[in-house]
Amino acid sequence: MKRLILALLLLIAPAGCSTMQLQDVFISEAGLIVTRDIPYGPEARHRLDIYRPEAAPIKGTIVFLYGGSWTSGDRTLYKFMGTAFARAGYVFAIPDYRIFPQVRFPAFVEDAALALSWVNTHIGAYGGNGNSFALMGHSAGAHIGALLLLDPQFLAAHGLTSGIVNAYVGLAGPYTFNPLERDNTRPIFETAPDAERVRPIKLVADAAARGLPRMLLLHGSVDATVGKRATELFGEALREAGVPVETHIYPRLAHIGVISSMAWPLRWRAPVLSDVLTFLGRNERT
User: Fold this and answer.
1) pTM score, two decimals?
2) How far is residue 286's CA from residue 283's CA, in Å, rounded to a whole number?
3) Bridge partner list, 102
4) In this predicted model, what pLDDT tens digit does every residue of 1-26 receive, in sequence order?
5) Which strands sit side by side in the sheet containing 167-171, from one edge to the other?
6) Nearest CA among 6, 263, 282 for reference residue 138
7) Which CATH topology does 2-9+18-282 take?
8) How crowded is residue 110: how many other Cβ atoms within 10 Å of its Cβ?
9) What is the pLDDT of residues 61-76, one digit of tens each?
C-alpha cells in the first residue's frame, strides 16, 4: 500500500519535483511549532529553522547539517526531517551554511560551529533541552559534523568542546577521502594548510584521547556517491580508539536513500528513523 501511495504521488508530481520535495507537499505541521529564518550570524546564509513539539515533553535537542557536496543545499528541503523528529519529541534545528564558490574550507565548518554555539546558547527559549544535545549530518554535512567533534579548534573558537554533544549521527559521510586528490573537491579544500586535517579518519586518535560522544554511523550498501567503506573504515578507527560506535549498512539503499527513508511514505525501505530514535533514546541526558 505504501508503495502504491508513493507511485500515485509521483504520477501527480510537478515536473522536476524530487522525491524529497514531493514528501514536503504532504507533510503536516499540525501539533508542531515551527520557527523559520532565525539569524544565527551576520551572513545571508546564517539562518536556521527550528521544529518542536507543541505539547509533548522534550527529550532533547538535535542540530542537523544537510549535505550537498559543500556546493549546494537549503534547509527548506528538510521539512520531512524536522517534522519527523519533532513528532518524536525533539527540538530539531536545521541551519544553512555558506557554500562554495562563495567560500572555501574552513568557512562552512566555522559556520556550523557558529550555528551549534547559537543553538547551545538560545535553544532554551525554544523549549530545547540543552543538556541532551545531538549532532546529525548527511553526506557533506556528516563530514562537517565529524570535523566539529574531531578538530577542537572550531568549537574552541566559541568557548566550547565536543563535550556539549552527547550523541552524533552520521549518514553517508565521506570520512576517509582526501579532497585534494579529486578535481571536483580540490578547489573547495585547496585552502587547507594540511590535507590530513580535513580527513576525519585521520583525527580519530587525538580526538578520542580528549573524549568523543557516542556515535551512530549509517550508510546504504549501494551508495555510488560515497562508498559504504567510508563508514566501515571510520567506524573501525573509532572502535579501535575506544569510542562507542554503532554502524548500520542498509541493503539496497543509495546515497539519498539513507536519508529519504526517514520521510513518509518511504520508511518501508529501511528502519533508518527507528534506528536513529532508538540510538538517541539510549544516549539522552536528563
Assistant:
1) 0.92
2) 10
3) none
4) 344 334 433 433 444 455 455 455 56
5) 32-39, 47-53, 90-95, 60-65, 133-138, 167-171, 214-220, 245-250
6) 263
7) Rossmann fold (3.40.50)
8) 20
9) 999 999 999 999 999 9
